[in-house]
Amino acid sequence: MTTTKVLLDESEMPTRWYNLLADLPSPPPPVLHPGTLQPVGPADLAPLFPMALIEQEVTTERYIPIPDDVMDVYRLWRPSPLYRAHRLERALGTPARIYYKYEGVSPAGSHKPNTAVPQAYYNAAAGIRRLTTETGAGQWGTALAFAGGQFGLDVEIWQVRASYDQKPYRKIMIETFGGTIHPSPSTLTAAGRAVLEQDPASPGSLGIAISEAVEVAAQSPDTNYALGSVLNHVLLHQTIIGEEALLQLAKVGDAPDVIVGCTGGGSNFAGLAFPFLREKLAGRMSPTIRAVEPAACPSLTRGVYAYDFGDTAGMTPLMKMHTLGHDFIPDPIHAGGLRYHGMSPLISHVYELGLIEAVAKSQRECFEAGVRFARTEGIIPAPEPTHALAACIEEALRCKETGEEKVILTALCGHGHLDLAAYGAYLSGELQDHALSDEAMSSAVASLPRIPA
Amino acid sequence: MTTTKVLLDESEMPTRWYNLLADLPSPPPPVLHPGTLQPVGPADLAPLFPMALIEQEVTTERYIPIPDDVMDVYRLWRPSPLYRAHRLERALGTPARIYYKYEGVSPAGSHKPNTAVPQAYYNAAAGIRRLTTETGAGQWGTALAFAGGQFGLDVEIWQVRASYDQKPYRKIMIETFGGTIHPSPSTLTAAGRAVLEQDPASPGSLGIAISEAVEVAAQSPDTNYALGSVLNHVLLHQTIIGEEALLQLAKVGDAPDVIVGCTGGGSNFAGLAFPFLREKLAGRMSPTIRAVEPAACPSLTRGVYAYDFGDTAGMTPLMKMHTLGHDFIPDPIHAGGLRYHGMSPLISHVYELGLIEAVAKSQRECFEAGVRFARTEGIIPAPEPTHALAACIEEALRCKETGEEKVILTALCGHGHLDLAAYGAYLSGELQDHALSDEAMSSAVASLPRIPA
């Protein structure tokens, strides 16, 4: 029996993040101001973000050093383990070698603290006292509540009311870490009050919650806003996942033939894949890199590549990305972290360049993979990474047919301890698949803003 | 900044369990047959346990090799990390060095799989096809469901109905791992039916659930029963915790001055403490070893040392132990794993020999410690280990006053992801302390069976 867990010592932890912008054959299209339709500049973003993060958003430096104070917090759970899935391989009878990088060991139970911690750090360093954000299922809110506490920041979170009511454990976890949480729409903001006037029983939406968090941040000079995915600097911070995985695979003398990761806004996928994409662009490796998205929210496989807003209300800058339309409301699948209408502009660009591929999976196949994984590997995955596991198992079974001993690498981006209700629904046969009809697709993209060429 | 996590490579994992019986100055009093009042022999236990475990229950061999197939499953999460609590120390302003051994990385999220896996292994090796057990809050049931699955055993679990109804996530977790779960009392057993006839709405008790699980196991030759604490072989399997911690502390050149662990049945405490007690008995170390129990169920600090039954119904052999009386029903504190009327006979004996000390803590102080720990170290502890953390913090603050740079070691035996409701109650100020009145104590011990001297 060879190694099960490939560990790195803290002294081996990468000390810099990797910026894919340095190595792309062409830059992604600029982000546009929604009023002027001109590229946004640092001044446009300064009311919401500290200058250090704005610089990370646009820099083409290949490597960004990780500050010592961030390294110090990372050490609470990083380097994260890379597992060889011996028991899953045996259960599948595949000659493939399956590795998974496990981010569920973090305080929030997912990859989100990898960026929450530096975001809190840079804001505190800029003299900010409070961060606001939105959260859907609650992973991002939990991560930011914890991270803010490490640097003396108050963290105020607007959670979509439907999730706030359905998932009380996330609220308690956020409060245990010291965060303040409001159901959204709330009476604390003009945006929230406007919605409640129309519909006092509004279940809320991520778009409304973003509007509330942004409104509060924009009004107070000591308050900034933080985002958990989509933007370049968020993807940058997540690259520590892939940088560690590179070192860990080197330790066991393996290189990946196939890399699969689930994609919502894209930060988990980018975090694992971008350092390997650097190796691929440099000709040192040649993995197939595959994004896996939910069939109910297939921005890469069925969306259009166009300028669109990041939020439902249309308040953000315009980003060129794969999108289902900013007022698209995905069916209520359990992988809440994958229910985003758009895909990170940087990942969209990389997809357009043909550097990665994408597939979509229905949720029953994903939960089947999740249960299979739990029973063999002993970790109950969050609903989001079950998408990657389903694609992983598909590839491993293909290898079983062909006899290929491929090396498959995936990101197990979080545990499912707070998502067990979804497993309950699956095990009792109540879980529905939600595929997207062509009609729903066409009507969704009809909302795209018109940009002159 | 020195190391945060002290890791062991899989190749450094201890390959044998440590048996404290080999080193005690006197043996513990024998376990008695409840009918004959004579010491029980292997034949008395054979209907419930495989011979390998019965031998481990009574052997005085110092070390028991861990079978390869058990090592193989252990590698899914072992060696577990030892953390230096830098951030907690800093928040307390203590010169003490605090280390915690974290068992929440296991499939069940606690130390329980350390014994569930070998118990499943030895039963499967003896040709057993099914295991039955009881579970309260659900930690043990989860561990055995997972472990059974690794060796092809069906696992059937009777869960106290009150917990079954209140904690649906545990039921789902058990089913995700492939276990079968029944609310107890159930109509599946004579014991359950008898209770339901008296009280169709019975909320159940651990005692009733044990009776049901034992009844089913005793009736089928292919079915055995498994217990998650109290017995010698269970404590034996847990000693891998302390053996690893010894190696890890040696790596950083530290030796503990104080060891604290929470105690319910005693397996977590023994698992950490016994290997250090070996060192203490041999004169190689001199740590103070302190058990921490809930003020609502203080078997060591306020119970009597007497022969008593292990279950409420009085069906088990008689064990000499610190007990509150077998029909004592502890107040419904959130640390469900510490609500046991007795203390492991081996730990009780060690306590009588003066080798360990004990303190009791009220639950609000414990949750205060739990929240403090979460906000500094990033891990939300289960309610059980918050008792150890409260004692840890008390000791660290004592060091702050005296200026002593003591090394404090504790076992963080599980995470609190499925116990967040308890944190919610604490944070909203609804949590009550449940101290035990002298009257309740006296009436509880009045139920003790009378044993002729």
UniProtKB/TrEMBL annotation, chains A, B:
Reactions catalysed, as given in the entry: (1S,2R)-1-C-(indol-3-yl)glycerol 3-phosphate + L-serine = D-glyceraldehyde 3-phosphate + L-tryptophan + H2O
Q: In which pathway does it act?
A: Amino-acid biosynthesis; L-tryptophan biosynthesis; L-tryptophan from chorismate: step 5/5
Superkingdom in the source lineage: Bacteria
InterPro entries under this entry? Trp_synth_b-like, Trp_synth_b_CS, Trp_synth_beta/beta-like, TrpB-like_PALP, TrpB-like_PALP_sf
Report the EC number(s), separated by commas if there are several: 4.2.1.20
| Named cofactor requirement(s) | pyridoxal 5'-phosphate
Which terms in the GO cellular component ontology are assigned?
Answer: cytoplasm
Question: What residues bear N6-(pyridoxal phosphate)lysine in this entry?
Answer: K112
| A Pfam family annotated for this UniProt entry | PALP
Name the UniProt key words of this record, in alphabetical order: Amino-acid biosynthesis, Aromatic amino acid biosynthesis, Lyase, Pyridoxal phosphate, Tryptophan biosynthesis
Question: From which residue to which does any coiled coil extend?
Answer: none
Q: Is Lyase a UniProt keyword of this protein?
A: yes
Task: Give all residue intervals belonging to the Tryptophan synthase beta chain-like PALP domain.
Answer: 76-414
Which enzyme class?
lyase
Q: Name one GO molecular function term.
A: tryptophan synthase activity
Q: Which family does it belong to?
A: Belongs to the TrpB family.
Q: Which HAMAP family match?
A: Trp_synth_beta (MF_00133)
The role this protein plays is: The beta subunit is responsible for the synthesis of L-tryptophan from indole and L-serine.
Subunit: Tetramer of two alpha and two beta chains.
Which protein is depicted?
A: Tryptophan synthase beta chain
Q: Which organism does this record belong to?
A: Dactylosporangium sucinum
